[in-house]
Amino acid sequence: MKVTDRTTTRATRRARRVIAWLASMACLLALIPGTARADNPIVQNIYTADPAPMVHNGRVYLYTGHDEDGSTYFTMREWRVYSSADMVNWTDHGSPMNLATFAWADANAWAGQVVPRNGKFYWYVPVRQRSNGQMVIGVGVADSPTGPFRDALGRPLVGNNEIDPHAFIDDDGQAYLYWGNPGLWYVKLNPDMISFSGSATRIPLTTAGFGTRNGNASRPTLYEEGPWVFKRNGLYYNVFAAECCSEFIAYSTATGPTGPWTYRGTIMPRQGASFTNHAGVIDFQGGSYFFYHNGALPGGGGYTRSVAVEKFSYGSNGLFPTITMTNTGAPQVGTLNPYVRQEAETIAWGSGIETEASSEGGMNVGWIENGDYIKVKGVAFGAGATSFSARVASATSGGRIEVRLDSANGPTVGTCTVGGTGGWQTWSTTTCAVSGATGTRDLYLRFAGGSGNLFNINWWQFGGTGGSATNLLTNGDVENGTTGWGVHGSGTLARNTTVAHGGSGSLSITGRTGAWNGPSQDVTAKLTNGRSYTTNVWVRAQSGTPSAKATLSLTANGTTNYLQLTPAVGVNVNGWTLLTGTTTVSWSGTLSNAAFYVETAEGTDSLLVDDASFQ
């Protein structure tokens, strides 16, 4: 949907609202004692499929396909990205790659996967080649895990009319690309990740390696599609969709990346109202997670699927347990800090809302109508919040944000009025008092007002003394010149009044002679050993998207350790990159120096920094 087109899309909008309303009923059952609250599927405002999770710099990035509403075939035109630091609140990063990225392709944005290497991110996807109608594999590449992605080759990497690519980098640095339906193939990727050595090799599909399929002489094994290959404790795993249709998820193991494989059995039996399934497996923050898709949302089915996740534990022999789909999903890892700016599109469950690209960067929540809401899980208010602020826009007369706890009908701890701002992308900040938001609670932002679309919301933030509310950085918004800022290494600081992320200026650094040089602040006297801190910094590079990161140097007893605080999680339309992350600091002995600074992975490009917080 386009930002300016809110009337002609009303029929589609209302159809989606019915889907979201029905799906949210499972969430409202939480009001009944003893009933679990639903957090699966992960995304509720659109249909998603073919999950491909990736762990990078303390976050899980989830790459999915997008089933179009009302599909009666695998009608898919774009890929989507979501990310989470806690496995329950997922940030929507939109669609950084679609069929138009590949000028030589004309259909089928089907199951792909992303791997990081060489400071870049490579997205392997199957698409239909326009010139011959064959399914081939293309490669998108980006400097950030959230894109934007561009065509790395201008042509297919490889193709034999089969699908479902998956890349794996072994411990020795050798990368492999697997794919296939009905066969199972691989090539050895070169270090550049966009070329390969030799030719495509077919892995023998034996019944010993992939199980026995009954009643199909042409396909005697269970292997169907969607290989997911990884290594754990010296053992190689190949998780795959088995025996269409309907499919279940099975797996095999081997002592090498190309076999020979030994069939191990079923992971996820047939279930879930979709005749296909597609798995992705990761380890994150000490836990193991199994991603899959089903037809759990109303209107869902084999062509309108939804991605979900379960936490599991391997057996003592390294084998998978049987995993069953649930509507509760994975447990939360840690809590969410409400005292730093949170994107409105960071959601555990949403009812009635949609997302779109924001003129201020990233995405915003839009098409809000009376009664819609957003749930954010496990919000750590601590001793208590005193205020709530939200960035909003409205081309009508606006409405209200009801700040509620525990459920969509739970106690109201604050109400913010949203007035008309003159446009759906004309932004203003509204603030209201909050009372009673203490402890760790589920937060519900419930939207109220008249009929039709009310307003958009871009971000929100609580104020108060109940949590990590104090920014340890002086002049983080750079509204007071360069006060508080120094230089880590070499470079020249100045205030740029022409380009700013927020306010009237940003911090400029030029003349960097090393990638580790950057704007810096001394925080030695401000840190508490063993405490967790959350970082938010907006960065813009002179020549484009920076491979930037915020770093903390800790010197204790004569030894200096470097702690990377943030990954780059999103680039907005104005070229600003948000660096955000939560990290626990620790040291042994006496801390003599601690410096917070922004650097780059490589290069000496001039940078702009704005709206920085470390708290």
Overview of this protein structure:
- This protein has 615 residues and is mainly beta.
- The chain has 3 domains: 40-312, Glycosyl hydrolase domain, family 43 (Tachylectin-2, Chain A), CATH 2.115.10.20; 342-462, Galactose-binding domain-like (Jelly Rolls); 486-614, Jelly Rolls (Sandwich).
- The strands form 10 sheets. Strands 1, 2, 3, 4, 5 and 23 form a 6-stranded antiparallel beta sheet that branches. Strands 35-36-44-38-42-41 form a 6-stranded antiparallel beta sheet, with no helix packed on it.
- It is globular.
- Mean pLDDT is 90; it is low at 1-36.
Chain-wise SSE layout:
Layout: H1 10-28, E1 47-56, E2 59-67, E3 76-84, E4 90-92, E5 97-98, E6 105-107, E7 113-117, E8 120-129, E9 135-142, E10 150-151, E11 166-169, E12 175-179, E13 185-189, E14 196-202, H2 207-210, E15 223-232, E16 235-242, E17 248-254, E18 262-268, E19 280-284, E20 287-294, E21 306-312, E22 342-343, E23 346-347, E24 349-351, E25 354-357, E26 363-366, E27 373-382, E28 387-394, E29 399-405, E30 412-418, E31 423-433, E32 439-448, E33 456-463, E34 486-488, E35 492-496, E36 506-510, E37 518-522, E38 532-541, E39 548-556, E40 559-564, E41 568-571, E42 577-584, E43 591-600, E44 607-614
Antiparallel strand pairs: 1-2, 2-3, 3-4, 3-5, 4-23, 6-8, 7-8, 8-9, 9-10, 11-12, 12-13, 13-14, 15-16, 16-17, 17-18, 19-20, 20-21, 22-33, 24-27, 25-26, 27-32, 28-31, 28-33, 29-30, 29-32, 34-37, 35-36, 36-44, 37-43, 38-42, 38-44, 39-40, 39-43, 41-42
